[in-house]
Fold:
Amino acid sequence: MLVRVPRLLTPEDVAHMRDRLASSDWVDGKVTAGAQSATAKRNLQVPENSPVARELGELILQRLGRNELFTSAALPLRVFPPLFNRYDAGMKFDTHIDNSIRFVPGAPIRVRTDLSATLFLTAPEDYDGGELVIEDTYGEQRVKLPAGDMVLYPATSRHRVNPITRGSRWASFFWIQSMVRDDGQRALLFDLDNAIQSLRKKDGESAEAVQLTGIYHNLVRRWAEA
Structure:
């Protein structure tokens, strides 16, 4: 399931982040790559322990906590602290699959990577190339979103970032451990939640809406790890 979360960040949020990141140190992105992806990765990254990364990561977590679409699609249990990367001209990230487990730096916490997230911080007209290409059951999905928009997709997916041919592409990326591990089950719950919300807008708290809400929560009880 691939879900676009529009306007997670306001234009003011994006401008603030870009201003803070512009004055940050950038290091080789291989510092957070696994054995396989390290050979495929060519980009820059703000160090995980950077005060700027932590400050901006907290802002993203606040915005995620208030976003109903993200909550419905991800059913998050844990969110890995957001990281920040940059692709300049000639940089790319060849096809890879994200590590299954991430260890939170400085804390005895492990995050199972059920979902991957990319939050775009550069307007698409400001760079050429740099598409996030995700391989799923419907073929290749090419993603290049406005600054402030985010895409969620299964971390089991093969994906890549196409080479940058002009400009620079900045983004935040992170992973989510969902309460519902199985992507198919999450997709069913997401579709059901959307149907319930549409029914409520049309008919209010009808008997059908109440019944479907009960079914939704009983399925969450059956499938969720809390």
Observations:
- The chain is about 35% helix and 30% strand.
- Residues 1 and 183 are 7 Å apart (CA to CA).
- The longest strand covers residues 169-178.
- The mean pLDDT is 95.
